[in-house]
């Protein structure tokens, strides 16, 4: 999950939820229910309350394809949402697994004359690219109406190009969380840190207890960009963050040097990263999570950084969120703790009644409630009753996300052109993988980042 080209509309770039980081509760409670009827209208039931509903047309005999890069539980859970759409409309929906970068995947499909009807795009820049290439179709009246009713202006903006709505941000993510093995912390006498210096002290306490402090999924370059963005946003501040996201300042700027120097305090510390740099570079994101919560109080690492969606991978272990697996906000490096957000937007590639109906459904709370109950999911849809979330961790994060309204920023690499911020083995992903391998080469890393950014942004 990650949720590219820059979005200038509204400047403050409405892109990274500055969600109140201190609002995270860690206890778990079970939440109930959901429903949908056969006809075009159905209510999502939660705790006896009926959420706002949407009327959908009957689409018997029609079919459509939906492409996304989602795998595993994330894909399975989304298929349940699509199954409800099928039940309510009579349409047949096929999920098409896509590869990263999805723009390249879609390009090959379009060149072959077989594009999917709808694609879930994980970058604002990818939406812009799809519009510029003439692939994306504007949202129709019903989808736009549902979007306007259920989303803040900020979330509507990042799915729009030149003021016209193209994307429905169905899924959001709080990407400023550090998850930890509670038993390891208890054994070590470690506390949840609130500042970067405290994080370093906690890491040393864990290391002294005999457990490697951090698990890093370095095989997936996007996890490394997320690390950088959290440090940079907190340390350099939102104005610099906006400037770097738009390439209005260069990657050779002193603020980037400072952030890389800070990152090296963990990435460059001997034995602080599970498997060392080479091992981390061979560890994919899902494994970086599971190895933190497998092995009881002697896992391969005590902590793993990533977003709320980590819960999906924790579920693959025997650890329980809230007891065995706990979480704290990414500590403040500067004056304010960061919270970076990402998201995935539904974009129509083949304009049909069925595709427009699916976009309308995904813009409604009915769709989001289904996946919210399954865990590992946050919706920016303000009409979703937060009682749908299966535990207090996600419920609190969802409430904070909605409370942020339009005061948010998006994942920086997802605002960049795909060639720089979203392509395996290239651009920012590759430069930061090389930096993880050699954290002493700060100047060289900055030079490579700037050269790649200049080429991708066009100068």
TrEMBL record:
Domain of life, per lineage: Bacteria
Signal peptide location: 1-32
Keywords for the protein's UniProt record, in alphabetical order: Signal, Transport
Gene3D superfamilies: Periplasmic binding protein-like II (3.40.190.10)
Annotated family: Belongs to the bacterial solute-binding protein 1 family.
Protein name per its UniProtKB record: Carbohydrate ABC transporter substrate-binding protein
């Amino acid at each position: 999950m990650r949720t590219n080209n820059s979005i200038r509309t509204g400047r403050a770039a409405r892109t990274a939820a500055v969600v109140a980081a201190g609002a995270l509760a860690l206890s778990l409670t079970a939440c109930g229910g959901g429903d949908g009827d056969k006809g075009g209208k159905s209510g999502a039931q939660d705790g006896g309350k009926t959420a706002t509903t949407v009327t959908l047309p009957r689409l018997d005999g029609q079919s459509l394809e939906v492409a996304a890069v989602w795998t595993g539980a994330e894909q399975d859970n989304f298929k349940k949402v699509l199954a409800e759409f099928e039940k309510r409309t009579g349409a047949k929906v096929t999920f098409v697994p896509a590869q990263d970068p999805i723009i390249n995947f879609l390009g090959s499909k379009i060149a072959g004359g077989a594009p999917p009807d709808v694609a879930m795009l994980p970058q604002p820049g990818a939406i812009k690219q799809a519009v510029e290439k003439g692939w994306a179709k504007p949202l129709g009246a019903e989808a736009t109406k549902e979007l306007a009713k259920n989303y803040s202006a900020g979330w509507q903006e990042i799915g729009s190009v030149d003021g016209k709505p193209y994307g429905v941000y169905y899924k959001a993510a709080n990407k400023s969380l550090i998850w930890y093995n509670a038993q390891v912390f208890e054994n070590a006498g470690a506390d949840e840190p609130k500042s970067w210096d405290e994080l370093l002290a906690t890491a040393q306490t864990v290391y002294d207890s005999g457990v490697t402090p951090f698990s890093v999924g370095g095989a997936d370059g996007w996890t490394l960009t997320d690390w950088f963005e959290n440090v940079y946003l907190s340390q350099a501040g939102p104005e610099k963050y906006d400037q770097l996201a738009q390439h209005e300042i260069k990657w050779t700027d002193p603020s980037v040097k400072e952030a890389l120097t800070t990152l090296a305090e963990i990435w460059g510390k001997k034995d602080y990263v599970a498997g060392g740099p080479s091992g981390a570079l061979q560890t994919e994101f899902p494994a970086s999570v599971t190895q933190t919560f497998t092995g009881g109080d002697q896992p391969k690492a005590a902590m793993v950084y990533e977003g709320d969606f980590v819960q999906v991978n924790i579920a693959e272990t025997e650890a329980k969120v809230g007891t065995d697996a706990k979480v704290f906000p990414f500590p403040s490096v500067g004056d304010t703790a960061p919270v970076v957000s990402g998201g995935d937007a539904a974009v129509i590639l083949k304009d049909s009644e069925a595709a427009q109906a699916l976009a309308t459904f995904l813009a409604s709370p009915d769709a989001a409630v289904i996946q919210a109950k399954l865990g590992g999911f946050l919706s920016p849809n303000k009409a979703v009753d937060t009682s749908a979330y299966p535990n207090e961790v996600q419920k609190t994060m969802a409430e904070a996300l909605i409370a942020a309204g339009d005061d948010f920023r998006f994942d920086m690499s997802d605002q960049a052109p795909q060639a720089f911020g979203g392509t395996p083995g290239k651009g920012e992903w590759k430069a930061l993988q090389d930096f993880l391998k050699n954290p002493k080469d700060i100047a060289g890393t900055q030079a490579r980042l700037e050269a790649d950014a200049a080429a991708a942004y066009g100068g």
